[in-house]
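Q: What structure does this chain adopt?
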Amino acid sequence: MKNLVLRYGLYSAGVMVGVFLFTFFFVAKESEMGYKIAEIVGYSTILLSMVFVFLGIKKYRDENNGGSISFGEALKVGILIVLIPSVAFGLYNLFYIEVLDPNFMENYYQYSLEEYKASLEPADFEAMKAKMEKEKAMFQNTGMQFFLMFLTVFIIGFIVSLISSMILKREKGVNDSFMESNA
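A:
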């Protein structure tokens, strides 16, 4: 199982980080394409990379586990696969904000302030600005950045693992009976 988890986890991480790097170098920075579009591209890329969770569970069930797998075992395989792209994305994010776009945090902060200023009443905007000022230091902490990005991918991956496990579970006794009755 270890090799399968590592292989499919690296496929997932490679697709995710590869698309982000490709977008940065050959399409546009987040600030250039617009933060809303960049967010859509980002979440879409994470979801696309999670296809390898499904494929990894299926491969384990079909080739390593004799064609059957319990929900719990499938979920375990999925979660183990998801850990790899989660760590990879956390590390990529640190690389992005420290090396590729060191002004990202300040630019995004200013963008967010402008968005709130345009959509909130002045009193509400001042309250939101004060709240954002308190949170700013926390979000600039590299450990917090890593954790938030790790958690983002992990939560999406966990949901994909749950769904994949429900779809792919196949108990031994149930399938053996079905196959024999249709022979």
